[in-house]
């Protein structure tokens, strides 16, 4: 399969690209920093794939539509088509909203919301030409109920969740499956230095490889086997998602207050 991964220079994106490469897929690794990508594919995991020209890298600012056009052109020129888009690029800002830089919060919205939206818009015509065209958006367990200290991040993932649900229905007629993954906190560069009460209380129990395993499986499965729209990663996220479907809103709020509020 021909798979385009955004935010692929590190973390979940890079771990997913590695797993896909070892399984023989053609993978396009895209990120804003191509120098970091060049360093990333020097890993021995990519050696065979690079030799067989199953790996390409390219610059992509997900917030810029023209930048997406360039990434798509690279995929088509090198692989002849695109079967899967993994919308992974994202940023995180933590802290009480009035105490954080507004510029950083707005930049988060640009990447986490606009970036995903533009990718879903731009890739649709190409994915429709694939037998199993699909979009896998990286959402979060934060999209189950808004979280204090990362309220804007949680809101951005609610956007991803809503967009995924709507396009899961809308894109069905195009033959494109649209789904998302919803992990809880993941140990990565993104969460390395942030201070959030829910992390202090729950810990970080997932690695980038845990999420990459799920992304790899979903992005390469036949569409007919993908029966759900949302896929939680890790037991805590699965428990929270299940509880949210049967638990009254005031109780969910109380749980989140106990977990995430100072």
Describe this structure in words.
It is a single chain. The chain has one domain: 3-Layer(aba) Sandwich (Rossmann fold). Helices cover 49% and strands 15% of the residues. The chain has ten helices and nine strands. The longest helix is centred in the middle third of the chain and has 26 residues. It is globular. The model has no long low-confidence stretch (mean pLDDT 89).
The global form is globular
Tally of individual domains: 1
For the record, the CATH class is Alpha Beta
Strands, total number: 9
Helical fraction? 40-55%
Secondary-structure element string? EHEHHEHEHEHEEHEHEHH
Q: What's the CATH H-level superfamily name?
A: NAD(P)-binding Rossmann-like Domain
The averaged pLDDT comes out at 89
| Low-confidence blocks of residues | none
Q: What is the CATH architecture assignment?
A: 3-Layer(aba) Sandwich
User: Under CATH, the topology is which?
Assistant: Rossmann fold
Terminal-residue CA separation? 46 Å
Assembly type: single chain
- Main beta sheet strand tally, sense and closure: 7 strands, parallel
Our count of helices gives: 10
How would you concisely characterize the structure shown here?
The protein has ten helices and nine strands. It is of the alpha/beta class and 262 residues long.
């Amino acid at each position: 399969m021909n798979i385009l991964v955004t935010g692929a220079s590190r973390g979940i994106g890079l771990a997913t690209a590695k797993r896909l490469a070892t399984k023989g897929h053609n993978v396009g690794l895209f990120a804003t920093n191509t120098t970091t990508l060049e360093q990333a594919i020097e890993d021995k995991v990519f050696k065979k794939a690079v030799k067989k020209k199953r790996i390409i890298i390219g610059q992509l600012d997900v917030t810029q539509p023209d930048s997406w056009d360039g990434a798509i052109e690279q995929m088509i020129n090198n692989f002849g088509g695109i079967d899967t888009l993994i919308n992974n690029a994202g940023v995180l800002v933590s802290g009480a909203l009035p105490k954080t830089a507004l510029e950083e919060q707005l930049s988060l919205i640009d990447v986490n919301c606009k970036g995903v939206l533009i990718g879903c818009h731009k890739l649709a015509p190409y994915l429709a030409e694939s037998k199993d065209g699909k979009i896998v958006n990286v959402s979060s367990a934060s999209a189950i109920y808004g979280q204090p200290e990362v309220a804007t991040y949680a809101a951005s993932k609610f956007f991803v969740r809503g967009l995924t649900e709507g396009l899961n229905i809308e894109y069905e007629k195009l033959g494109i499956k649209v789904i998302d993954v919803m992990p809880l906190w993941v140990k990565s560069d993104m969460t390395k230095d942030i201070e959030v009460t829910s992390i202090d209380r729950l810990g970080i129990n997932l690695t980038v490889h845990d999420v990459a395993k799920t992304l790899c499986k979903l992005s390469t499965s036949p569409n007919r086997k993908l029966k759900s729209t949302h896929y939680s990663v890790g037991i805590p996220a699965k428990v929270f998602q299940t509880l949210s479907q049967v638990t009254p809103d005031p109780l969910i709020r109380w749980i989140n207050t106990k977990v995430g509020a100072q």
